[in-house]
Amino acid sequence: MGETRRIQVRTDADLWTFTQRNVSLWDVLDLFPDDAVGPRGPSDAPRPYEVKPVTVDTDLGFSFETDIQFGTWMFRPRSPKDPGMMRWCREAGMEVGDALVFEAVGERRYRLTLEKGGGVGA
User: Which of 8, 35, 69, 103 could form a disulfide with 111 if both were Cys (CB 3.0 to 4.6 A apart)?
Assistant: First the structure.
């Protein structure tokens, strides 16, 4: 098993934010390579390095390739209809007390799973 990090779903507000907005990766940012952080938007200056995406394999059977937006520290937003963090959050069945688990499984590759009750007391 690779290095892992967890984001807890502590409150109803967290649950709403994760399923209706996005998930801040701030608390798990050290798991990802520095060069996976891209500009916030197209009008921002480019990063002072080549931005290289990461691949996230989910426990729902789909994967997505993404970078992390500078300043928001979130995976690049996508429509919830497309493979991405928003779709996973809406389809994973998360509840308060669960944890989102990110595991490094290879070079620039991560596994995203939901740990039921994983946020309680953690």
Answer: 103
Q: What tokens were used for 109?
A: 């590759």
User: Cα 66 to chain center, whole Å?
Assistant: 9
Q: Assign 37 to helix, strand or coil.
A: strand
User: pTM for this one?
Assistant: 0.90
Question: With contact defined as beta carbons under 8 Å apart, do 7 and 100 qualify?
Answer: yes
State how far the Cα of 119 lies from the Cα of 83, in Å rounded to an integer. Answer: 25
Q: Which residue has the tokens 């209809």?
A: 81
Structure tokens at 47: 């990063």
DSSP string for 60-117? TS-EEEE-EETTT-SBPP--TTSSSHHHHHHHTT--TT-EEEEEEEETTEEEEEEETT
Under 8 Å between Cβ of 87 and 80: yes
Could you tell me the residue ranges of all domains in the chain? 4-115
Cβ neighbours around 22 below 10 Å, total? 20
> pLDDT tens, 56-83?
999 999 999 999 999 999 998 778 889 9
